[in-house]
Automatic annotation (TrEMBL):
It is a single-pass type I membrane protein. This is TMD11 protein. PANTHER family: TRANSMEMBRANE EMP24 DOMAIN-CONTAINING PROTEIN. The keyword Transmembrane applies.
């Protein structure tokens, strides 16, 4: 995505609890002379701020023009990940565009390929098996979180449907009572005018 040099951009990620999140990014600055983005932006870094669903700041750190940040979500919900360049130029001069290459992996698990190659085949299979087991646990946590969200949504829908049903009953009773009142009023009016 593109952003201004002093601009802040935020991304909302819905993350289950106890999940590792790994983010890789790279910043490129627009070059006026070549009319292209430079491969790297020397001297330019990024403030990365991660906020929990409760509003607490989980991570706030300055990184370089490219880097990796990691955090673990302790509660499930929408985490807000914000990026802002560390540009010290005034807002009037800081009109340069930045291109941010961002890759966020939720539930990422590290596999050290060099360590796997150094060990014999039995250990390699064992390490890969442990990695698969960890991924299964992550998928299970993700499913539990989705099940919990679906349950909340279902309860909200049922409460809304119940409220709509009662509103329809109240509306019907009001219409019937207004109709009976109108009939009685018209009958009394016709009797008083001796039209009936």
């Amino acid at each position: 995505f593109h952003m201004g040099e002093r601009e802040e951009k935020c991304i909302i990620e819905d993350i289950p609890s106890d999940t590792l999140v790994v983010g890789n990014y790279k910043v490129q600055r627009w070059d006026i002379h070549t009319h292209d983005f430079l491969e790297s932006a020397p001297g330019l870094g990024m403030f990365v701020t991660v906020t929990r669903p409760t509003g607490e700041v989980l991570l706030s750190k300055l990184y370089g023009p490219q880097g990796t940040f990691t955090f673990t979500s302790y509660i499930s919900g929408e985490h807000i990940i914000c990026y802002q360049s560390n540009s010290t130029r005034f807002a009037v001069i800081a009109g340069s565009k930045l291109r941010i290459h961002l890759d966020i992996r939720v539930g990422e698990h590290f596999l050290d390929e060099s360590a796997i190659q150094a060990k014999d085949k039995v250990n390699e299979v064992n390490v890969r098996l442990e990695h698969l087991i960890e991924q299964i646990h992550h998928v299970t946590r993700e499913q539990d979180y989705e099940r919990e969200r679906e349950e909340k949504f279902r309860k909200t829908s049922e409460e809304t449907n119940s409220n709509i049903l009662w509103w329809a009953i109240v509306q019907t009773l009001i219409l019937i009572s207004v109709g009976i009142w109108q009939i009685k009023s018209l009958r009394d009016f016709f009797i008083s005018k001796k039209l009936v």
